Amino acid sequence: MQPQSVCESNGFFDICSALPGLLAKHLNKDGEHLHPFEGDEGLMNGSWLDPLDPDVFEKWPDARRATPYVAVVERGETIVAPKGWWHYAVSLDTSVTIMRNFYSTSNQWDLIQRKDSGLAGAIATHVLRKQPKLKNQPDSVINDIATKTVHKLRETFIENRRKAAQQGSA
């Protein structure tokens, strides 16, 4: 069996170049039929479903409802997996695969919101919960304070970037 990836979906664009390889993709709407589990950052974006397994439909009957789009990436070719598209890659031969996830202005806020949520959780657990005055507060109060703190930090960061850009163009 050649090296392969798990079936997954990401909150960013993927660029994959393989020498050579096969990539099966599914639309975002097909995700529910791929038996997702909680993967990166708490998102339902991973699946143990192996589309090349001869018993795939016995193990994962709902997978019949997903429509695969299959592409063979030849030497020197590149393929893009748009945000949210489920994808599964298999090397067809001994090869080198270069894969890069990237963010742009079209999807940067998805990343920022996920990171801000994680930051709020860390602030709640490791900072606020250890403050004597907040120690016995309910989780909802601690989480609300942490979320508002991160929101204020984000607003300040954006405002400072805006001011710096204005000063740079003046």
Any key phrases for this structure?
single chain, three-stranded antiparallel beta sheet, 2 domains, alpha+beta, 24% strand, 170 residues, Jelly Rolls
**SS-based structural class?**
alpha+beta
CATH second-level architecture of the largest domain? Sandwich
For the termini, the CA-CA separation is 60 Å
Strand content: 15-25%
Summarize the structure.
The protein folds into two domains: about 5-100, Cupin (Jelly Rolls, Sandwich); about 110-170, no CATH class. The protein is about 30% helix and about 25% strand.
Notes on the structure:
There is one protein chain. The chain has 3 helices and 9 strands. With 170 residues, the chain is of the alpha+beta class. It folds into 2 domains: 7-102, Sandwich (Jelly Rolls), CATH 2.60.120; 108-169, no CATH class. The protein has a 3-stranded antiparallel beta sheet, with no helix packed on it. It has a 3-stranded antiparallel beta sheet with strand order 7-2-9, with no helix packed on it.
Task: Show the helix and strand layout.
Layout: E1 7-8, E2 13-18, E3 21-26, E4 37-38, E5 44-47, H1 56-59, E6 69-73, E7 78-81, E8 86-91, E9 97-102, H2 108-126, H3 139-169
Antiparallel strand pairs: 1-5, 2-7, 2-9, 3-6, 3-8, 4-5
Helix pairs in contact: 2-3
